[in-house]
Specification:
Length: 397
């Protein structure tokens, strides 16, 4: 299959996919709207990172796409509902950059508590201000982790190694690690924590979850760190809390609106020029180790879907663990989840006298995904299945 990898995805992904027999072209940048549609018309699969926006309009104009790989944790840059309706599974790498983000958060806690960013800037300017005022150890302090998933739990482990007390809040009950403890509400966490670090997805519930009310409930002199999603924090309110002295510092790696490519000038944030604030350009998972692992993981998912039809790990698609051995030909059919679909497909197969070696079907509330190993030949039956009014996308491997 012909695959486009955008945004300078780690070369291991291209190498791995080429080794599997795919035709891969690597692009170093992202594209938008009409230019993106023009690029995609020559490819059957695409890999992106966080800058490329696969909107409903882009996907609707690219119905020939078979699969999308997000070489990152998040998938909010893809219209998942539109992709599913077009029969396009989306894969990501939910674990591969976990450690990189967690290490950055710990580093920012230490940097903020020692005013390292401001101190370094002064020395670069030739100013010498040696002082212990406003500088503290992190040992013995309380870190509050909002969202105790893959990254949040890693932060917990590392923070305890520094002698910190760990509390966390999650919308579901999570098993504590080490001596960490789960609190009942976000308000309880904010009231208790010297550092608050956010590790939540972008949803309607998390949008501006740190607004004026929540920030005002944080401890006097506390620090806020956001390496999750840019929509989670009201940056104007955070700026006000910093300039008033209610908060002692903040570190932000994600923003409500981010440039489409490197070297774009004119990026602006309300937090620019605030005291003891670390602003980084969405680099939480940008380490060589993380990008290598992400490249391997998502490339493997793409190949497994392309060659075997496997959808385990797809974020918005019925998950099917397909057999690694194809008997005859493998028919992959995405269809509307309505009664009688499987009966209609089996009727076509039966009337054509086709022997079925195996069938696997999984559904969600909107679509069904069928993997069927059949004997070779019988192209006419494939076309009939593809033309069923319930069929969304049908493919033979």
């Amino acid at each position: 299959m012909k695959i486009a990898l955008l945004e300078n995805i780690h070369k291991i992904a291209k190498e791995k996919l080429i080794a599997k027999g795919h035709d891969v072209e690597l692009f170093t940048q992202s594209f938008a709207d009409e230019e993106l549609v023009s690029i995609l018309k020559d490819f059957e699969a695409v890999g992106i990172r966080s800058k490329t926006q696969l909107t409903q309009e882009v996907l609707t104009a690219s119905p020939h796409l078979n699969v999308i790989g997000c070489f990152c944790i998040g998938t909010n840059q893809v219209d998942l509902s539109a992709a599913k309706k077009l029969g396009i599974p989306v894969f990501n790498a939910p674990h591969s950059n976990t450690r990189s983000v967690a290490e950055l958060v710990i580093a920012e806690m230490i940097a903020l508590s020692r005013n390292l960013f401001d101190m370094s800037t002064l020395v670069h300017r030739g100013k010498w201000q040696k002082s212990a005022n406003g500088s503290y150890e992190v040992r013995g302090k309380t870190v509050g982790i909002v969202g105790f998933g893959h990254i949040g739990s890693q932060v917990s482990i590392l923070a305890e190694a520094f002698g910190m007390k760990v509390v966390y809040y999650d919308v579901i009950k999570k098993l504590p690690l080490g001596n960490s403890s789960q609190v009942e509400s976000l308000e309880d966490l904010l009231r208790e924590s010297d550092f608050v670090t956010l590790h939540v997805p972008e949803t309607s519930d998390t949008r501006n979850m740190m607004g004026p009310d929540q920030i005002s409930r944080m401890k006097q002199g506390a620090y806020l760190i956001n390496a999750s999603r840019g929509s989670v924090v009201d940056l104007d309110c955070l700026r006000d809390a910093l300039t008033s002295g209610h908060l002692a510092g903040a570190a932000v790696d994600v923003y409500p609106s981010e440039p489409q490519k490197n070297d774009d000038e004119g990026f602006a944030s309300p937090l620019q020029n605030c005291k003891n604030v670390i602003l980084t350009p969405h680099i939480g998972g940008s380490t060589q180790e993380a990008q290598f692992k992400i490249g391997q993981e998502v490339a493997e998912s793409l190949d497994q879907f392309i060659t075997l039809g496997q959808t385990m790990g797809a974020v918005e698609f019925p998950n099917v663990q397909s057999s690694p051995e194809i008997k005859g030909r493998r028919l992959l059919n995405v269809h509307k989840n309505v009664p009688g679909v499987l009966g209609g497909i089996n009727s076509i197969v039966s009337q054509a006298g086709i022997n079925i070696h195996s069938q696997q079907l999984s559904t969600d509330e909107e679509i069904g995904y069928l993997i069927m190993d059949i004997e070779t030949g019988h192209v006419e039956a494939f076309e009939k299945i593809n033309q069923l009014p319930t069929s969304i996308k049908t493919r033979l491997v």
